[in-house]
Amino acid sequence: MNRQMRETTVGRQIQLPLSKALEISLKSIRMRFWRSMITAAGIFLGIAFLVSVLTASLIEQHLPGTVDPAAAAAAKNRQLWLVIMSLIVCTVGITNSMLMSVTERFKEIGTMKCLGALDIFVVELFLLESGILGVLASLAGWVVGFGAIALLALIGKHGAAVASMQFVQILHTLGIAMSVGVLLTVIATIPPAIRAAKMPPAMALRTEI
Amino acid sequence: MAANEYVVRTKDVCKEFIMGDTVLRALDGVHLDVFRGEYISIMGPSGSGKSTLFNMIGGLDKPTGGSVFINDVDMAQLDAHELAYLRCRTIGYIFQTFNLIPVMTALENVTLPMVFAGTPTDDCVEKGMKLLGLVGLGDRLHHKPSELSGGQQQRVAIARALANDPAIILADEPTGNLDLKTGKEIILLLKRLNEEQGVTVISATHDLKMIDVSDRVVWIRDGRIERIEERAEIELKVGEMEGVE
Question: Of A160, B94, B126, B147, which has the maximum CB count within 10 A?
Answer without folding.
Answer: B94
